[in-house]
Automatic annotation (TrEMBL):
This is XerC/D-like integrase. InterPro entries: CB, DNA_brk_join_enz, Integrase-like_cat_sf, Integrase_catalytic, Integrase_recombinase_N, Integrase_SAM-like_N, Tyrosine_recombinase_XerCD. Pfam families: Phage_int_SAM_1. Gene3D superfamilies: 1.10.150.130, Intergrase catalytic core. Residues 117-339 form the Tyr recombinase domain. It comes from the Archaea. It comes from Natronomonas pharaonis (strain ATCC 35678 / DSM 2160 / CIP 103997 / JCM 8858 / NBRC 14720 / NCIMB 2260 / Gabara) (Halobacterium pharaonis). GO terms for biological process: DNA integration; DNA recombination. Coiled coil: none annotated. Residues 10-93 form the Core-binding (CB) domain.
Length: 354
């Protein structure tokens, strides 16, 4: 569509492209990519229904689309996708492709708090067993890429983008610090851009694992920008892709690394296809980087780590942490509330026996 074209003649596909370009102005590229993929589902649905132009959309179409998506995705994903669709329809109004107020016909279902926080996470128990296994230097996996990346995500709560962004020089081995920096022009943006930049202190054992990885397992490579990534691959790009990082984490969290118990999926590790990088995500017991991050944030909170420090450390808002990650039991929450306050209820300022 040219500048002077009739907005009502705009195709659904072209409207999505325009919306994505608008979002790119102030959203991280990873977020924009998610928007594009989610709205592709709507474009395909419109194609199947014979809807070519935005102006052909009717209010009932959004209800029908939601019914179809609800049968395929989880409630939290449905809420996110319908919310995005509503923003897209509002954008179409803004450019004159749809009548004003049309977006109000897009119903956004609200997932319950339980549904919003139901995503699987790497439990503290499983993380402990995995890390203790990798830290045992007798098994030759200490400092491996699987060990190093699991240590970093568990102790920093970093996202995949943060892991990919780390350069060799971002690891201060003397003071045990990892420096996360936003470098979008060089291909390694952080989700929250400059607000995502932070220095994160790590435990000596984590630093030791990284030092071993660098000395014994890291492939000496530079990326296309001439930078030396902390985590490297043998590929020409040197820096691991998002999918590569994800595969390493899936591999690292497979429980058959550390246990002699029978596989719950009736597999034997030496003959299991799921142990390969390409198929690691198919193992039902493995966990994604996001699941490790979720478990890590929960671990920080359950150990009494200051909420504000946790927020800065993992680069997530307090509201997000409380809503999605704080899994403390109701009794623990009660204890946290009442202990500093309970004595105020005593008569004559005297402590009373319970």
């Amino acid at each position: 569509m040219t500048r002077r074209s009739d907005p009502e003649a705009l195709s659904v596909s072209d409207a999505v492209k325009r919306f994505v370009r608008r979002m790119r102005r102030d959203k991280a590229e990873s977020t924009v990519r998610t928007y594009r993929l989610d709205l592709r589902q709507f474009v395909q649905w419109c194609d199947a229904e014979g809807i070519e132009q935005v102006s052909e959309l009717e209010k009932i179409d959004f209800e029908l689309y939601q019914d179809d998506r609800a049968a395929e995705i989880e409630p939290t994903s449905l809420e996110n996708q319908m919310g995005l669709l509503k923003r897209f329809v509002k954008f179409c109004e803004d450019i004159g492709a749809l009548p004003e107020g049309f977006h109000e016909s897009v119903h956004v279902p609200r997932a319950t708090v339980e549904e919003q926080s139901r995503d699987e996470k790497l439990s503290t128990e499983d993380a402990t067993e995995l890390l203790l296994f990798f830290r045992d230097k007798s098994n030759d996996l200490f400092g491996s890429k699987w060990h190093a990346i699991l240590e970093v995500i568990w102790h920093t709560g970093a996202r995949i983008g943060g892991i990919r962004a780390l350069d060799l020089e971002d690891f201060d081995s003397e003071f045990h610090v990892l420096e996360f920096r936003h470098r979008p022009r060089q291909g390694t943006p952080l989700k929250n851009k400059q607000d995502g930049e932070r220095d994160v202190a790590i435990l000596p054992v984590v630093a030791e694992a990284l030092e071993c990885y660098i000395e014994e397992h890291r492939i000496e490579q530079h990326d296309e920008e001439g930078r030396a990534p902390l985590f490297t691959t043998r590929s020409q790009q040197a820096r691991p892709s998002t999918n590569t990082v994800r595969a390493w984490v899936y591999q690292a969290t497979q429980p058959c690394w550390h246990t002699d118990e029978p596989c719950p999926h009736d597999k034997r590790r030496e003959f299991c296809d799921w142990t390969s990088s390409a198929a690691s995500s198919k193992c039902p017991s493995s966990r994604s980087p996001h699941a490790v991050r979720t478990g890590a944030i929960t671990f920080h909170r359950d150990r009494g780590f200051d909420p504000n420090d946790t927020s800065e450390r993992v680069n997530a808002s307090l509201r997000t942490i409380e809503k999605h990650y704080d899994k403390a039991a109701r009794r623990e929450k009660m204890e946290n509330r009442r202990r500093p306050q309970l004595e105020k209820l005593s008569l004559n300022n005297e402590s009373e026996r319970e």
